[in-house]
# Entry
Amino acid sequence: MTKKFFVKIVTDPEVDLRKCIVGIACAAQAVNDGYDVDMFFAANGVKMLHSEFIAGINNSGMLPDGLLDELLNTITSGAKKVYCSTGSQAANGVTKENAGSKLLAGYDNWMTWSGPPGVIALSADSDVQLVY
# Structure
């Protein structure tokens, strides 16, 4: 039986970007290793789904070229479920109505809007929990 991983990103990347990237890298590694991975982006960690924010990181030169995009693509194409907090997105200026211009491309194919019920369901269904 494959272990189920639940990875939650809640840290504000403007406060501790390294922690957010480590969480994303661990989730991508778990996907690559064949585990069932569920992700939840909440609090200010939702910024890691904002296309402009990710472009800023990519253009900063602090990571190898293309690394963050590669990790996020692994998650968005290989994770079992990717959720984001509706309330946290709204607190950061993103709503279902304007998400198309604010979130990573294709979000509507791989992301589910949710809140505490999603966090509880995903964590209760997991074998391993990682929180960054």
